[in-house]
Amino acid sequence: MSSAGISRRSGKEEEEIQDRGFKEVKASLEPYLLQLGTYLSLIGSVLDKTIDYIKKLYKIIEPYHPDELVPALIGLIMTFFGGTFMTTIAFFTAAKTFGWEKISTAIVALYKNLKTAADASRKDDKVDADNDGKADVDELQKHELAARKALLIAKTIDPQEVAAAIEGLVTAWMAILATLKIEFAAAITFGVNLGNIFEECLEPLLTPIAQRAIPYDFYKWYPVVLQYTCRSVGVSIAWFIRRVMSATYSSFKGSELMFYSLAMYISRNKIMDIRKVQPGSLLFNITFTIVAVVGLYWQLSNLFRLPFPLNILLLPLTIFEKFLIYSIAIKK
Predict the structure, then answer these.
(1) % of the chain residues with pLDDT over 70
(2) Contacts of 202 (CB under 8 A, 6+ apart)
(3) Are 317 and 256 in contact (CB under 8 A)?
């Protein structure tokens, strides 16, 4: 066979291989694109209902100036749950330092593009171009529907805006996480060193007992178990001390924020003479200090646990707190 024939044959085989590869990739992406279209429609519907509900609720409470009561609620949570959610509070403090406006701008940009795509997807679900009484999407095959939704998403969202928003959020997340790791690294280091001291004190006492009680084949595990047990106890103690410190600060700072917001609320609504409750006054200082001490005592007496039904009401904060702790703990 001539070299030209071999070249044409190899070129044709290469095209067939590429075509098969494209079909395989397309087939593998189809279910994900279908799910994406479904999720976009669902998210759009939920967002619309949620926003409508928030707008209606805000209209009801608008005469009571909720912008002044929200900080009071945040202060109340800090006063009585600052130690329980110390990582969450540290997260938002770091976010404020990093630049909350940048983060909120990125979130708004993502929300706008997501809502635009969701609205377009829901409208597309109702299109009946051939006027046969059935929506066009109901008459398509799965791969056709996936391609349709993919093209729709590509047309409706702004890729540069989405990419910039995602990049901004990732950068903010990494910066905040690095700040938290540095902040809590001191407590972890102190706990490890404390555990090493425990190990030095306990080893002379426990080693003779372990030599007699543990079989020879398993004795090799004794030093490792002792070391990590002592370190775990040390880190737990250090973490508890760090939590007490955070609870103390949060109680006083949260109580001050709560009463400052309430003072502004009282001033706006002329409930009483603002001079008696304004920040710096004797009544203000005595009141917020008493509430701060009560909040700190309540946290310590409950060992930072949330009693029922607060553990249900504050479950989202608890989940976020655990997620932050896990994110700080992992190395990568």
Answers:
(1) 76
(2) 226, 230
(3) no
